Amino acid sequence: MSRISLKHLRQMKVAQEKIAVLTAYDASFSYALEKAGVDVLLVGDSLGMVIQGQESTVPVSVDDIIYHTANVIRGSDKLFVIADMPFMSYANPEQAIKNAARLMAEGGAQMVKLEGGAVITETVKQLTARGIPVCGHLGLLPQSVHRLGGYIVQGRETEAAEELIADAISLQEAGADMLVLECVPATLGAVITKQLDIPVIGIGAGSDCDGQVLVVYDMLGLTPGKRPRFSHDFLADTGSIQTAIELYVSAVKSGAFPNSEQQF
Protein backbone atom coordinates (compact mmCIF):
# COMPACT_ATOMS: atom_id res chain seq x y z
CA MET A 1 0.00 0.00 0.00
CA SER A 2 1.37 3.42 -0.96
CA ARG A 3 1.78 6.16 1.63
CA ILE A 4 -0.70 8.95 2.13
CA SER A 5 0.23 11.76 -0.24
CA LEU A 6 0.11 15.54 -0.16
CA LYS A 7 -2.65 15.36 -2.75
CA HIS A 8 -4.74 13.28 -0.35
CA LEU A 9 -4.16 15.74 2.50
CA ARG A 10 -5.21 18.66 0.29
CA GLN A 11 -8.36 16.74 -0.64
CA MET A 12 -9.09 16.23 3.06
CA LYS A 13 -8.95 20.01 3.57
CA VAL A 14 -11.33 20.62 0.68
CA ALA A 15 -13.71 17.94 1.99
CA GLN A 16 -13.42 19.43 5.51
CA GLU A 17 -12.22 16.07 6.81
CA LYS A 18 -10.03 16.65 9.86
CA ILE A 19 -6.40 15.52 9.68
CA ALA A 20 -5.09 13.64 12.75
CA VAL A 21 -1.38 14.17 13.41
CA LEU A 22 0.84 12.96 16.25
CA THR A 23 4.56 13.03 16.89
CA ALA A 24 6.47 9.76 16.64
CA TYR A 25 10.08 8.90 17.38
CA ASP A 26 10.37 5.11 17.02
CA ALA A 27 9.06 2.11 15.10
CA SER A 28 6.80 0.74 17.85
CA PHE A 29 4.84 3.97 18.31
CA SER A 30 4.77 4.46 14.54
CA TYR A 31 3.10 1.08 14.12
CA ALA A 32 0.60 1.78 16.90
CA LEU A 33 -0.30 5.21 15.50
CA GLU A 34 -0.86 3.80 12.02
CA LYS A 35 -3.07 1.02 13.42
CA ALA A 36 -5.14 3.63 15.29
CA GLY A 37 -5.95 5.62 12.15
CA VAL A 38 -3.57 8.60 12.45
CA ASP A 39 -2.99 10.35 9.10
CA VAL A 40 0.38 12.06 9.55
CA LEU A 41 3.43 11.43 11.73
CA LEU A 42 5.71 14.27 12.77
CA VAL A 43 9.24 13.39 13.84
CA GLY A 44 9.48 16.49 15.97
CA ASP A 45 12.51 18.11 17.51
CA SER A 46 10.36 17.81 20.63
CA LEU A 47 12.32 14.58 20.99
CA GLY A 48 14.98 16.73 22.61
CA MET A 49 12.68 17.23 25.59
CA VAL A 50 10.61 14.02 25.77
CA ILE A 51 13.28 11.53 24.64
CA GLN A 52 16.60 13.17 25.51
CA GLY A 53 15.49 15.10 28.61
CA GLN A 54 16.75 18.46 27.31
CA GLU A 55 15.29 21.75 28.55
CA SER A 56 14.34 22.81 25.00
CA THR A 57 14.44 21.62 21.39
CA VAL A 58 17.59 23.65 20.64
CA PRO A 59 20.22 20.91 21.26
CA VAL A 60 18.65 18.46 18.77
CA SER A 61 20.86 17.70 15.75
CA VAL A 62 20.15 16.76 12.15
CA ASP A 63 21.65 13.33 12.87
CA ASP A 64 19.17 12.89 15.74
CA ILE A 65 16.23 13.62 13.45
CA ILE A 66 17.56 11.33 10.72
CA TYR A 67 17.97 8.47 13.19
CA HIS A 68 14.45 8.80 14.59
CA THR A 69 12.83 9.41 11.19
CA ALA A 70 14.35 6.21 9.81
CA ASN A 71 12.96 4.30 12.82
CA VAL A 72 9.50 5.81 12.31
CA ILE A 73 9.52 4.93 8.61
CA ARG A 74 10.27 1.29 9.43
CA GLY A 75 7.21 1.11 11.68
CA SER A 76 4.73 2.58 9.22
CA ASP A 77 3.66 1.47 5.74
CA LYS A 78 1.17 4.13 4.71
CA LEU A 79 1.36 7.29 6.83
CA PHE A 80 2.72 10.64 5.64
CA VAL A 81 5.92 11.41 7.57
CA ILE A 82 7.24 14.92 8.27
CA ALA A 83 10.67 15.57 9.78
CA ASP A 84 11.57 18.70 11.74
CA MET A 85 14.61 20.66 10.65
CA PRO A 86 16.50 21.37 13.91
CA PHE A 87 17.70 24.70 15.25
CA MET A 88 20.12 26.47 12.87
CA SER A 89 20.03 23.65 10.32
CA TYR A 90 18.45 26.04 7.77
CA ALA A 91 20.23 29.31 8.55
CA ASN A 92 20.60 29.92 4.80
CA PRO A 93 19.12 28.27 1.69
CA GLU A 94 22.29 26.33 0.87
CA GLN A 95 22.47 24.81 4.35
CA ALA A 96 18.74 24.08 4.30
CA ILE A 97 18.96 22.25 0.96
CA LYS A 98 21.86 20.10 2.18
CA ASN A 99 20.19 19.14 5.46
CA ALA A 100 16.69 18.67 4.00
CA ALA A 101 18.16 16.35 1.37
CA ARG A 102 19.69 14.25 4.16
CA LEU A 103 16.40 14.09 6.07
CA MET A 104 14.68 12.76 2.96
CA ALA A 105 17.41 10.55 1.49
CA GLU A 106 18.80 9.10 4.74
CA GLY A 107 15.80 9.41 7.02
CA GLY A 108 13.04 8.75 4.49
CA ALA A 109 10.92 11.81 5.32
CA GLN A 110 8.33 12.96 2.79
CA MET A 111 8.37 16.56 3.99
CA VAL A 112 10.50 18.84 6.18
CA LYS A 113 9.22 21.42 8.66
CA LEU A 114 10.80 24.84 9.25
CA GLU A 115 9.97 27.48 11.85
CA GLY A 116 9.53 31.12 10.88
CA GLY A 117 7.65 33.49 8.61
CA ALA A 118 8.74 35.99 5.96
CA VAL A 119 12.40 35.64 6.94
CA ILE A 120 12.52 32.06 5.60
CA THR A 121 10.48 32.50 2.41
CA GLU A 122 13.55 32.49 0.17
CA THR A 123 14.66 29.25 1.80
CA VAL A 124 11.21 27.76 1.23
CA LYS A 125 11.35 28.81 -2.43
CA GLN A 126 14.76 27.20 -2.87
CA LEU A 127 13.67 23.95 -1.22
CA THR A 128 10.39 23.57 -3.10
CA ALA A 129 12.07 24.45 -6.41
CA ARG A 130 14.20 21.34 -5.85
CA GLY A 131 11.24 19.10 -5.13
CA ILE A 132 11.47 19.17 -1.34
CA PRO A 133 8.00 19.56 0.22
CA VAL A 134 7.91 22.09 3.06
CA CYS A 135 5.69 22.51 6.10
CA GLY A 136 5.86 25.93 7.72
CA HIS A 137 5.49 26.59 11.45
CA LEU A 138 4.12 29.85 12.87
CA GLY A 139 2.90 31.17 16.20
CA LEU A 140 4.88 29.87 19.15
CA LEU A 141 8.25 28.78 17.77
CA PRO A 142 9.95 26.34 20.17
CA GLN A 143 13.38 26.93 18.59
CA SER A 144 13.01 30.64 19.41
CA VAL A 145 11.70 30.15 22.94
CA HIS A 146 14.65 32.01 24.47
CA ARG A 147 13.96 35.07 22.32
CA LEU A 148 10.21 34.87 22.92
CA GLY A 149 10.74 34.74 26.67
CA GLY A 150 9.06 31.38 27.22
CA TYR A 151 6.12 29.36 25.98
CA ILE A 152 3.69 32.25 25.50
CA VAL A 153 0.56 32.53 23.36
CA GLN A 154 1.29 34.49 20.18
CA GLY A 155 -0.87 36.82 18.08
CA ARG A 156 -3.10 38.22 20.79
CA GLU A 157 -2.60 41.85 19.74
CA THR A 158 -3.99 43.11 16.42
CA GLU A 159 -0.59 43.99 14.97
CA ALA A 160 0.89 40.61 15.91
CA ALA A 161 -2.14 38.79 14.47
CA GLU A 162 -1.88 40.70 11.19
CA GLU A 163 1.81 39.84 10.99
CA LEU A 164 1.07 36.14 11.47
CA ILE A 165 -1.57 36.23 8.74
CA ALA A 166 0.88 37.94 6.38
CA ASP A 167 3.58 35.38 7.26
CA ALA A 168 1.21 32.49 6.58
CA ILE A 169 0.29 33.87 3.17
CA SER A 170 3.95 34.51 2.31
CA LEU A 171 4.89 30.94 3.20
CA GLN A 172 2.12 29.57 0.98
CA GLU A 173 3.17 31.85 -1.88
CA ALA A 174 6.77 30.68 -1.43
CA GLY A 175 5.64 27.11 -2.03
CA ALA A 176 4.91 25.66 1.42
CA ASP A 177 2.44 22.76 1.20
CA MET A 178 1.36 22.70 4.84
CA LEU A 179 1.44 24.87 7.96
CA VAL A 180 1.62 24.09 11.68
CA LEU A 181 0.10 26.87 13.79
CA GLU A 182 1.01 26.76 17.47
CA CYS A 183 -0.42 28.57 20.50
CA VAL A 184 -2.48 31.34 18.93
CA PRO A 185 -6.05 32.48 19.70
CA ALA A 186 -8.69 30.21 18.20
CA THR A 187 -10.18 33.11 16.25
CA LEU A 188 -6.82 33.74 14.57
CA GLY A 189 -6.39 30.05 13.83
CA ALA A 190 -9.76 30.07 12.07
CA VAL A 191 -8.87 33.15 9.98
CA ILE A 192 -5.54 31.74 8.81
CA THR A 193 -7.06 28.32 8.03
CA LYS A 194 -9.77 29.94 5.90
CA GLN A 195 -7.34 32.19 4.04
CA LEU A 196 -4.93 29.43 3.04
CA ASP A 197 -5.38 26.75 0.39
CA ILE A 198 -2.89 24.44 2.10
CA PRO A 199 -3.76 22.30 5.16
CA VAL A 200 -3.30 24.09 8.49
CA ILE A 201 -2.55 21.85 11.47
CA GLY A 202 -3.20 23.37 14.87
CA ILE A 203 -1.60 22.78 18.23
CA GLY A 204 -3.27 25.11 20.66
CA ALA A 205 -4.72 27.05 17.71
CA GLY A 206 -8.40 26.21 17.98
CA SER A 207 -10.80 23.66 16.57
CA ASP A 208 -11.28 25.34 13.18
CA CYS A 209 -7.85 24.29 11.86
CA ASP A 210 -7.82 21.56 9.20
CA GLY A 211 -6.23 19.15 11.65
CA GLN A 212 -4.60 18.79 15.04
CA VAL A 213 -1.20 17.66 16.27
CA LEU A 214 0.02 16.82 19.75
CA VAL A 215 3.22 15.46 21.18
CA VAL A 216 2.31 11.80 21.68
CA TYR A 217 3.70 11.78 25.22
CA ASP A 218 1.50 14.76 26.16
CA MET A 219 -1.51 12.98 24.69
CA LEU A 220 -0.75 9.96 26.87
CA GLY A 221 -0.10 12.01 30.01
CA LEU A 222 3.50 10.78 30.17
CA THR A 223 5.30 14.12 29.96
CA PRO A 224 7.05 15.09 33.20
CA GLY A 225 5.73 18.25 34.81
CA LYS A 226 2.67 20.24 33.84
CA ARG A 227 0.81 19.14 30.71
CA PRO A 228 0.18 21.94 28.18
CA ARG A 229 -3.27 23.51 28.47
CA PHE A 230 -4.04 22.72 24.83
CA SER A 231 -3.42 19.00 25.36
CA HIS A 232 -5.51 16.24 26.90
CA ASP A 233 -4.57 13.02 28.69
CA PHE A 234 -6.41 10.47 26.56
CA LEU A 235 -4.79 7.57 28.43
CA ALA A 236 -6.61 8.66 31.59
CA ASP A 237 -9.87 7.91 29.76
CA THR A 238 -8.88 4.27 29.21
CA GLY A 239 -6.39 1.69 30.42
CA SER A 240 -4.88 1.05 27.00
CA ILE A 241 -2.34 3.08 25.04
CA GLN A 242 -3.77 1.78 21.75
CA THR A 243 -7.31 2.74 22.75
CA ALA A 244 -6.11 6.16 23.94
CA ILE A 245 -4.61 6.85 20.51
CA GLU A 246 -7.84 5.73 18.86
CA LEU A 247 -9.80 8.07 21.14
CA TYR A 248 -7.54 10.96 20.10
CA VAL A 249 -8.08 10.23 16.41
CA SER A 250 -11.84 9.98 16.92
CA ALA A 251 -11.93 13.25 18.88
CA VAL A 252 -9.96 15.09 16.20
CA LYS A 253 -12.06 13.67 13.37
CA SER A 254 -15.35 14.56 15.09
CA GLY A 255 -14.21 18.02 16.13
CA ALA A 256 -14.56 17.18 19.84
CA PHE A 257 -10.87 17.97 20.34
CA PRO A 258 -9.85 20.61 21.11
CA ASN A 259 -12.75 21.84 23.20
CA SER A 260 -13.20 25.35 24.57
CA GLU A 261 -10.94 24.64 27.57
CA GLN A 262 -8.10 23.46 25.31
CA GLN A 263 -7.78 26.61 23.22
CA PHE A 264 -6.99 30.27 23.73
Keywords:
14% strand; eight-stranded parallel barrel; globular; TIM Barrel; alpha/beta; 11 helices; 264 residues
How is this structure best described in words?
One of its GO terms (molecular function) is magnesium ion binding. One of its GO terms (biological process) is pantothenate biosynthetic process. The active site is at residue 182. Mg(2+) binds at residues 45, 84, 115. The chain is of the alpha/beta class. It has one domain (6-254): Alpha-Beta Barrel (TIM Barrel). Helices cover 41% and strands 14% of the residues. The chain is globular and about 50 Å long. The model has no long low-confidence stretch (mean pLDDT 95).
**Helix/strand order:** HEHEHHEHEHEHHEHEEHH
Shape: globular
Q: Report strand order across the widest sheet.
A: 1-2-3-4-5-6-7-8
Main β-sheet: number of strands, strand sense, barrel status?
A: 8 strands, parallel, barrel
Secondary-structure-derived class: alpha/beta
Mean of residue pLDDT? 95
CATH topology: TIM Barrel
Let me know the number of strands. 8
Number of domain modules: 1
Contiguous helical run count:
11
Distance between the termini: 39 Å
CATH architecture: Alpha-Beta Barrel
> What integer value in Å does the Rg equal?
17 Å
Strand content: 5-15%
Helical content (DSSP H or I, runs of 4+): 40-55%
CATH superfamily: Phosphoenolpyruvate-binding domains
GO molecular function: 3-methyl-2-oxobutanoate hydroxymethyltransferase activity; magnesium ion binding; methyltransferase activity
Catalytic activity: (6R)-5,10-methylene-5,6,7,8-tetrahydrofolate + 3-methyl-2-oxobutanoate + H2O = 2-dehydropantoate + (6S)-5,6,7,8-tetrahydrofolate
Family: Belongs to the PanB family.
Pathway: Cofactor biosynthesis; (R)-pantothenate biosynthesis; (R)-pantoate from 3-methyl-2-oxobutanoate: step 1/2
